[in-house]
């Protein structure tokens, strides 16, 4: 997210605290599991994670000064509520790869920290909530939701959220109003959906918080290519968590969150209606 420094300070803290509240409350109930304290599993996973860090200390000959800086950084991640941001940017893509090993259907990718519950419920064809003068290229995203055997999934739900043309998420940045460019669209009796929105923009993770500061300190790009987030659900089927990107985006292949995949790139075409563009994308859900 880019803006003036003063605004980005407040936005990073706001975004961090909101994302932390959501993670703490377990609001993302579409993704259950975890929390089982099997000692063998805890020992295996936590042990491997700690050993990875110990190996880094040995191999890089980490100094006490660096160790103390690491402690301060970890504390600041907590203080700013950036644990969801840090974890979703730098680790979630590996968890998603593991999950994808056992999931058929359309290609997925990470959820990220900016999903919100309780958004507008809309029937297809739907226009997402937006300001009267919402900037950006008008865009239609449409397609069909089916099961892996081709059966249309009537009433499938397409939960969609993305930034505005300036790279801001409603509910996390102060500028867009609540609910802007977010909604849950119910597909028709053939599983078809059509969503009218605006093309989103690339954005940086917040640069004033510890995640962004670490990213810049390492000389890494803080940018995410423009993308649309989607959660596609239907009864009896595993939820598809995915994102859609745009051909020609300068940040494709260099996504700070490592979430972009070639299969997820859209190539919208003009509809002939002003500067409106359209992409068609079907989603295939795996039965549970
Ligand atoms: Fe995003």
From TrEMBL:
Residues 141-169 form the Intradiol ring-cleavage dioxygenases domain. GO terms for biological process: catechol-containing compound metabolic process. The keyword Glycoprotein does not apply. Residues 257-288 are annotated as: Disordered. Its cofactor is Fe(3+). Residues 275-288 have a biased composition (Basic and acidic residues). Pfam families: Dioxygenase_C, Dioxygenase_N. Keywords: Dioxygenase, Iron, Metal-binding, Oxidoreductase. Its EC number is 1.13.11.1. SUPFAM superfamilies: Aromatic compound dioxygenase. It comes from the Bacteria. GO terms for molecular function: catechol 1,2-dioxygenase activity; ferric iron binding. The keyword Iron-sulfur does not apply. Belongs to the intradiol ring-cleavage dioxygenase family. This is Catechol 1,2-dioxygenase.
């Amino acid at each position: 997210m880019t803006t003036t420094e003063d605004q980005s300070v407040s936005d990073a803290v706001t975004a961090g605290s909101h994302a932390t509240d959501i993670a703490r409350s377990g609001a993302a109930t579409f993704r259950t599991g975890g929390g089982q304290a099997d000692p063998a599993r805890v020992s295996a996973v936590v042990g491997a994670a700690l050993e990875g860090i110990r190996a880094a200390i040995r191999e890089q000959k980490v100094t006490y000064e660096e160790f103390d800086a690491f402690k301060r950084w970890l504390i600041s991640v907590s203080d700013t509520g950036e644990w969801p941001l840090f974890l979703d940017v730098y680790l979630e893509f590996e968890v998603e790869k593991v999950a994808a090993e056992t999931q058929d259907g359309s290609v997925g990718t990470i959820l990220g920290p900016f999903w919100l519950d309780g958004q507008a419920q809309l029937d297809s064809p739907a226009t997402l909530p937006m300001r009267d003068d919402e900037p950006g290229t008008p865009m239609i995203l449409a397609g069909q939701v089916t099961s892996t055997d081709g059966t249309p999934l009537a009433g499938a739900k397409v939960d969609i959220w993305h930034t505005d043309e300036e790279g801001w998420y409603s509910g996390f940045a102060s500028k867009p109003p609540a609910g802007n460019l977010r909604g849950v669209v119910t597909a028709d009796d053939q599983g078809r959906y059509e969503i009218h929105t605006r093309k989103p923009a690339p954005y940086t993770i917040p640069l004033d918080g510890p995640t962004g500061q670490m990213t810049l300190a390492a000389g890494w790009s803080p940018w995410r290519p423009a993308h649309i987030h989607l959660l596609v659900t239907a009864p009896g089927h595993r939820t598809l968590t995915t994102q859609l990107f745009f051909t020609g985006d300068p940040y494709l292949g260099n996504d700070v969150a490592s979430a972009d995949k070639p299969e997820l790139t859209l190539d919208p075409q003009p509809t002939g209606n002003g500067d409106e563009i359209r992409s068609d994308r079907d989603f295939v859900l795996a039965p549970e």
